Predict the 3D structure of the following.
Amino acid sequence: MSDHYSDDELLAGLRQKDKNAYYFDLLVRKYQQKLYWMIRRMVTDHDDANDVLQNVWIKVFRNVDNFKEESQLYTWIYRIASNETLTFIDKEKKKQKVRLEDAETAVNQKVDSGMTEDFGDNLQAKLLKAIDALPEKQKLVFQLRYYDEMPYEEISKVLNTSVGALKASYHHAAKKIEENIINKD
Amino acid sequence: MNISEQSSLMNSELNKNINHASVEEELKEVSPFLASHPKPDFTKNIAIPDGYFDKFPIELQSKLPKSRSRISIFDWARQYLLESKKVMAVCSILLLLSCGLVINHHNNRLIETTSISHPDIWLDDIDEDLIKETVNQSVNTASIKAEDTKKENFLLENCSEDELIN
């Protein structure tokens, strides 16, 4: 039902005092899955993804009145989600939950534990692990382009990075993943 | 759905398809290997609790702040500073310019007061008695210093170390 409303309609509804809860619920239902999977691909754990997603929506709710419409609404929401995800990952690193030398093992364990079934094609598991091994910001660029097929101009607004830098980052990431998979075969 | 909404939806779908084609094309150029394999489908192979997306919006409502209109003093200050960045930048430049002008003016005044050229001195205006007094004072000072030096030398040559200390 929420997909029937455009972002402009949802934004207008959010700014009405008496109906903002209703329109906010519609906005959440419209984008929750996309945001969840974007976050989940980065943090790999459901509980962590859930926490980050909640924080994202709370920030959206608090700041929607300050949204200046310089970009699309969903670009703005994605930007909040990216910042919250990267902040969360930085905090986790600082907590030193995972020592650097064990990082690859932990990443592989996390990816495996999240699977409901074995991939029929082992290559798919290798691909996921290779993506997960990328540096955080590069991984985010790669995922926004590869999975969400977001145009570079929008990714530029989400991550506040130039289009040229994003293209270079994405191309470099794709090559790295390819080398990673081919070398492990 | 009215005609404009349908048209908007069709445009959106068209843009999506164009974008999908360009992403595929780009991937073929950058990594033919990745382009030749299907994308791993996260949604099918990653475990999430049953009914998660139905329950999430309801659980979220209980965690939202009561009032959206209240913002913290910190948020207000940050917003005010961000908006007044340009004003602050202009004020900083004006302040620097003013300081520069004041320092420059002060330096010019110092130069004016201290620089005296010969043609500016009117020797007739100088009091001769004052000159004599000044010269006598400097001579006396020099002679006192010379006497002190003589006394020091005498003491060093003729007294022992213990006598000097005591």
In short: The domain at 119-185 of chain A is CATH 1.10.10.10 (Arc Repressor Mutant, subunit A). The two ends of chain A are 46 Å apart (CA to CA). The CA atoms of residues 61 and 163 of chain A lie 29 Å apart. The mean pLDDT of chain A is 84.
